[in-house]
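User: I'm putting together a small comparison set for a docking exercise, and I want a reference complex before I start. The sequence is below, and the ligand is S-adenosylmethionine. Could you produce the 3D structure with the ligand included, as structure tokens?
Assistant: Of course. I'll restate your input first, then give the structure tokens for the complex.
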Amino acid sequence: MTNSYAFLATCARGFETQLDHELHALGIEHTTPSAGGIRFDTSFITAMKLCLWSRIANKIELLLGECYAPHEDAIYDLGRNLPLEPWFSPTSTFCIRAHVNDKKFTNSVYLSLKLKDGIVDHMRDKWGQRASIDTERPDIVIGLQVVQRRARVFLELQGDPLNMRGYRRRQLQAPIRETLAASMIAVSNWDPETSGFIDPMCGSGTFAIEAALHATNTAPGIQRHFGFETLPCFPDYAASWRQLREEARDLSKRTRKSLNASIRAIDIDDSALDIAQNNAQTAGVAELIEFSKGDILKLRPTPAVLVTNPPYGERITVNDLELPEFYYQLGRHLRTFNDASLTIISVPELLKKNMHMKPAERIPTYNGPIPCEVARYELGRRGPSTADHD
Ligand SMILES: C[S@@+](CC[C@H](N)C(=O)[O-])C[C@H]1O[C@@H](n2cnc3c(N)ncnc32)[C@H](O)[C@@H]1O
């Protein structure tokens, strides 16, 4: 029988519902939403599949143990009681990455050392030797999370965060995370068979590339490696992993043959378009995206799904317009569109005060450290969102 383990998939704040739907579509039956992620039980093979296929998750972590932790010694005991096999081996290296958000504990390094001491004492008892620590290129990455006296220890399966798909070799100053871009595409409800897709301010091309990967059923992780590939138990799963990758490649090839989707990436800046085209080439989807130079404020009204991230934050003017004026013009222009929708990320004040449209959906989130909002507006006949707002 295949063993089942407890997992946590994390995502950008506010997108737990989209992640939950995605996990169900990928075959996970029972899920429990938790802060910033979704918990579920599944096999190690399915967890590898999630690393390969999830567009929305940032991390896939296997829960090794958890406890109530009123003091530091509880963290040592937790380490001492973790299952060593099949995850660790005496000849593999490991490191601990701690995320501590608890008034009781202020020194996350000290907590990591406590956990490490517990784990290596357990190793010495069991094997007569211990694995060594490597913080640069460890075989095994252990996550320690302590929040409100609850300590959880995870085995991180993804390695580099899942947003690092491997195609964004060049980027502009404010690129959006690939997983956040994919989450917004999920919010836009874009169906490649029925509507065209446009990012009218494409920057380094992330939305258009994610849209093309989605439309072609291409696994977002097909070009990269994952943390689980260096686990001591990986040889037992290597054949299943090869099969998952082969199946993913076949599906993408088959979908491409019959694909008839329109994906456009537009920017006012030549150098952005150059970078976007380069990245699309690296992602293997350049021929599926139509790139063009243009100003969003002059874009011909088109029935399409628009997903974009305009300038905000550190930028003060766009096209010589102050940011509030640019957003006002943007709202005014987009209200001339029919049978279209706009899914946009920006700071809430700029959207609320200047777009003069009522969003069909709004999700407070973060883009990096900046508190932002994702809003979806239905434009023209598709919805009632042209009513003034604020
Ligand atoms: C925040 S960046 C977009 C980042 C992009 N999502 C990425 O992943 O790299 C905003 C982009 O809007 C473009 N832009 C600014 N004003 C524009 C306009 N009026 N029309 C079209 N593009 C514009 C800028 O050149 C810039 O590339």
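The mean pLDDT is 94. Residues 234-257 form the longest helix (24 residues).
User: Thanks, that's exactly what I needed.
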